[in-house]
Each structure stands twice: as structure tokens, then as C-alpha cells.
Amino acid sequence: MARLIAALIRHGDYRQLARTPSALQPFPLNEAGRAQAKKGVAELIELLQEGGYKLHPQLDSSRLLRAWQTAQIFSEELRVVSAATLQVSSFDDLAERSVGSAANLTIQQIEAVLREDPRFCEPPADWKSNSHYCLPLQGAESLMQAGVRVAEHLETSMQMLADQCRVDTAKVFVGHGAAIRHAAHQLGVLKFEQIARLSMYHCRPVLLERQQQGKWRHVAGDWKVRGQSEAFTD
């Protein structure tokens, strides 16, 4: 049976607004982010060659600009290891956790909105990084709900490959760090307590293998260990 690999990529650095949950910010990669993407491609090529994986011609990306631009850079650079024409397809399912109607407000503004609305309680102090807390605002979701959404996309996509591929194949997915980590937990790759301790390097691939009976395992690429003083910016 062919081995099936999901190459998970966190987008590159971008023009993120200060102290604002990154979720739906529409801004492009900055110069550092573009450089990270090109460096990440080289690392992915090395991992593909080491594993002997054929590259699937479709790269799945979040629709947010920073992820789409990262996927485009990967697509352009990966042509050197693929005989096929590569294309990027964008999906809402791969987006970061949404804060709903509070999109692109600062943390302080979001907390003020909750205080001023008599229907809402004070959020927990760790509301931004709390995996299960969901802002009581229209369209908002918890980090875990975002992880379920991303995990379902990965499972569906890789099941389709299982029905089609006869050789060892890797497919690239470009998304967002927090949603990907929570998806990895949903897929049984990360324990719950690991989610908060780990992050993802910008554009550096983490390879997960989808095995028989839908089981997943980490096969290559490094998670980033979050420092004790490192802010939660996903």
C-alpha cells in the first residue's frame, strides 16, 4: 500500500496588526515571510527526496492572503521536483480560528465589547489561548472547533488520495499554526497538553502520515517548542 504524507506548512511572517488576534487579518507576507517560504521549500524538497515521495500536483491553502502567497511560492519553487504542473486551491476550511464579528479588533477592544454587552460574562484570563473557549459573538469558534474543521479537511483529502494513489505520495497543506496543532490533536498525533507547549515554525514543514484505518503519525519535520515567555500570536 502506498504511503500517504500530509506536509503541513504554517504561512510566512506577515504584516500583523499589534495585539490583534491574527485570525482573519487580510494582509500580505512581508519580506521576511517571503524569505521564510523560499527557505521552507528547500527543507521540504529535502524531506521529499529522503522519503522518496511523489509530490501531489494540488497544494491546498487557506484563503487568507498570507497563506495563499506562501502556497504560491511553494508551488513555484517545487516545480523543480515535480514533472506535473502544480496548482494552488484555496479553502475556507483551512483558515485560522475565527473570532467572528470581532475580527481584526484588538484584544483590548474585544474585551471592552464583552464588558459593554449585558448578555456576556467576563472571559477567562487565557481566553485567547484557551483551546475550548469560544467568544460569545456571532461567527466565533474555539481553537478546538477550528482544529476539527482542519482535521476533517485533511482526512477527507487524504482519503481521496488513498483511493487514487499507487505510489508513495505527499500533498502540501498551507494554513495556520494554532488550527493545525489542534487538528493534529484531533488526528491523534499530539496529546492535548502538547498543544500549548508547541508552536510551528513559519514555513517549515511538519510531515504527518495517514496510515491504514485512518490512523495518523508524525514522520518528519520539527514542531517548535514554545518558550515560557513567548506570546501566543496564532
Keywords:
single chain, 234 residues, alpha/beta, Rossmann fold, 7-stranded mixed sheet, two-stranded antiparallel ribbon, globular
Please summarize what this structure is:
The protein has 234 residues and is of the alpha/beta class. 35% of the residues lie in helices and 17% in strands. The protein is built from 6 helices and 9 strands.
CATH topology: Rossmann fold
Count of DSSP H/I helices: 6
The first-level CATH class is given as Alpha Beta
The CATH architecture classification is: 3-Layer(aba) Sandwich
Count every beta strand, where a strand is a DSSP E run of 2 or more residues.
Answer: 9
Output mean pLDDT. Answer: 94
Count of the separate structural domains: 1
Q: Low-confidence parts lasting 5 or more residues at pLDDT below 50?
A: none
Portion in strands: 15-25%
- What is the H/E string? EHEEHEHHEHHEEEE
Oligomeric status of the shown chains?
single chain
CATH superfamily: Phosphoglycerate mutase-like
- What integer value in Å does the Rg equal? 18 Å
Helical amount among residues, as a percent range?
Answer: 25-40%
Query: Cα distance, first to last residue?
Result: 36 Å
Question: Structural class, from secondary structure content?
Answer: alpha/beta
| Shape, per Cα inertia axes | globular
Q: Characterize the largest beta sheet: strand count, sense, and whether it forms a barrel.
A: 7 strands, mixed
Report on this structure:
The chain is α/β, with parallel strands linked by helices and 234 residues long. The chain has one domain: Rossmann fold (3-Layer(aba) Sandwich). It is 35% helix and 17% strand. The protein has six helices and nine strands. A hairpin with a 5-residue loop joins strand 7 and strand 8.
